Structure formats: C-alpha cells, structure tokens
Amino acid sequence: MPRSSVEDTGLPLPDPPPSAPPPSPPTALVLEHGVLKSLLGAWALAACSPEETTAVEEHLGVCGACADEALRLREAVGLLHPPESLDLDPTLRTRVLESCLDRRPPRIPVPAWAAPYDAEAARLDALLQDIGDAEWHTPVRLRWFEGDDPTSRRTTVAGVIAHLLSVDGLVSLALGLGDPLGELPAGTATPAARTEAFWRASHFPPTRSVRAPWREQSHTLVRTVSFAGGGSGQLSVPYGDFELPLQDSLLDRAFECWVHAGDIADAVDYPYGPPSPAHLHEMIDLGARMLPGALAARRRAGLAGPGRARHLVTAGAPGRSLRLEIEGSGGGEWLIPLDSPGALASADHEVAHVALDGVEFCRLAAGHVSPEEAAAGQNGDRAAIRDVLFAVASLSRM
C-alpha cells in the first residue's frame, strides 16, 4: 500500500528545514594599475579568467588611457580574424577534380581533341546553374556576318541553349545517337535552319527546362567519343553546306559554347572569362586552318580579290602568303596561303603581316566585331589583309 501522508494523520506538520543562505558574491580582485594594464592583451583575446575580466572592465570605466589601449588591441584582434565569405571558392570543384585525377587517372580518358568541348560545356553549365528563373527570359542578340554585312537574331537565354542543342545534334547524328530534336522537316540540315525549325516547333518560348536535354546531350557526346577511342576523330560531321572531321567539329562546338556563354553572361551581367590558353590556341588554330577555304568561297562569291592566275600557281607549289600573328594567351603564328587552288603557304612569298590579340581574333571569327573595327597591326599588301580579315569574319554563323 502507498505510504500515508502526514496530513492524513491529524498530527501537526513538522517545521520546514532552514533555508540555505544566499551565495555570497565573488570577492572582487584588487589589482594594481600596472597589473591591469598588462592584462589588456589577454582581455582583448578573451583569455582572462572571469575575476580578471571583471577587474579589467571595471578599471576601463575609470582609466581613459587603458580604455584607449584596450580599444586599439580589440581592433587589432579583429584584423587577425577577418570575416570569411560563406561562398565556396569557384575553383574548388576544378582543384578537387584535378587532385582526384592526378591520384587515379580515369579508366576511359577523354580524347585530347574532345577536352575543349568538355571544359567549355561544363563552364557554360555552371553559369546556367547560377542564374535565376526570370533570367532565362532575358533578351540575347546573336550576331554573325553574312557576306560583308553584320546580321543578328534576337532570342533569349533559353533560346541560346536551344540553339546549341540544335547544332550539337548534328554531331549526335554523325555518331549514330539520333536527333535530339526528333523528326525535322526536309531542308533543315544547316545549323541556322535546324535552330529556326526548333524555335518554330516550340509552342511556347524555351524555358530553363531546355538545360536538361542540352546537358545530357553534351555528356553523351563526350562519353561516346571517349569509349569510341581516338580513331573516331576522323569521322565526318556534315553541316549542310560544308563538313568537318569530328575532332574539328567538337572544337568548333567548344568555340560556340564559349562565344554564346559570353553572350548570356553579358545579358545577365555575369563575369565570364576566355578558355584556358591551351584550348584557346586550339580554337585559333582551327580558325587559321579554315581560312583558305573561306577565302576561296568569298572569291567564288565575288567578295574577295582574285588570287594569282591559275597558270602561275601549280598545285602543291608555294604561293603568296600572309603571316597571321596572334598575341597574348593562346597565341602563335600561322602562314595563310592567299593563292588557290592548292597553293602552299611559304615564308619566302610573304606579302603581308597581320597581328591580332587572341581573344580579339576569336571575337572577329564569331562576328562580334567588324573587320574594320578589329584592332590589328598591319603591314604589307592592303588588299590581301582586307580579304583575310573579312574571311575571318565570314567564319561566323548563327
């Protein structure tokens, strides 16, 4: 049975135990001025005992000299511990991946000629991850040259990614991966025609949902060429009115990723730098190798001066040449043959010299600056220089 309460017995209640006396306040330390002054450094670092802290703070209320010294020491401590940003270092991912790959190389490495596309697609994807939903509808103007005239097309950030998805689909088709756009009407083999058809087929303007298929397609392309091996680089990729080997086509797609990422970054006011020097050099080299064909096409269209007479230039023999000097990051020198068909470049037959910054050359090849505006050092045959600069601009397309 439970114990009975004392209240149920009828007996008087016992007296309560005496309450404990309240604790006496701690005895304040009584320290001399010199000792208190010597404790200021420890007090600023929060290294004093509670009694010392109380004594120092009481002293600071009556001693102006020590109060000034204490303030100076506290500010110095603040400089020793600057506030750090909570944002991750933007280079952290790259450094971690490089460290991992240095310790354990990938079992299936990405071919060297596909590395620029892999890198630029990853940089663009990181940019897209940082922009908000509303910014996907920010206006963007695509620019390029047709003939001797600049032209442009207005779209949005999402429309630019739809454009890249459309043109990357040509590489996907060449690799037998199928067309990410599905069935398109006949006559849509060129990059511009595919993009326009995709835009027209959309019931609504593209939104951020276009990022997922573009991202998946870029990963699939890199994965496929990695498993296919180095020999797949010579596979031909048709662009409608011209063709490129697969290794040059992926380099071209890397260039387009960078250029259009810059267009997006400008539209949303986001900082965006050029590719690494090694990748930039490969992009410039591709442009220099495509210049003879661009010159020949402009001559056929009556937009460039004629080369030397056919009977004066034997196929495989040296002809007139222009020295293209690219300065800065990714630079180098290239000899561009000016006579066609089949003439070789020769330093002994150099008639002109053009110097351009690497990024400026790429902006000219992207149609973002006109040949007249390109900051170039020029020497020699003015007509040849003009033809080459306009041929660089003619490399641009939608």
Q: What's the CATH H-level superfamily name of the largest domain? A: dinb family like domain
CATH topology of the largest domain: Four Helix Bundle (Hemerythrin (Met), subunit A)
State the name of the first-level CATH class of the largest domain.
Mainly Alpha
Strand order of the largest sheet: 6-5-7-8
Mind describing the biggest β-sheet? 4 strands, mixed
Class from secondary-structure proportions: alpha+beta
Number of domains: 3
Strand content: 5-15%
Radius of gyration: 36 Å
What is the molecular shape?
Answer: elongated
Give me the CATH architecture of the largest domain, please: Up-down Bundle
Helix content: 40-55%
- Annotation, overall tally of beta strands: 8
Question: Element order, helices and strands?
Answer: HHHHHHEEHHHEEHHEEEHEH
The helix tally amounts to 13
Average pLDDT over all residues? 85
Question: Whole-Å distance between the termini?
Answer: 95 Å
GO molecular function: metal ion binding
Domain Mycothiol-dependent maleylpyruvate isomerase metal-binding: 118-265
Organism: Streptomyces sporangiiformans
Biased composition (Pro residues): 13-26
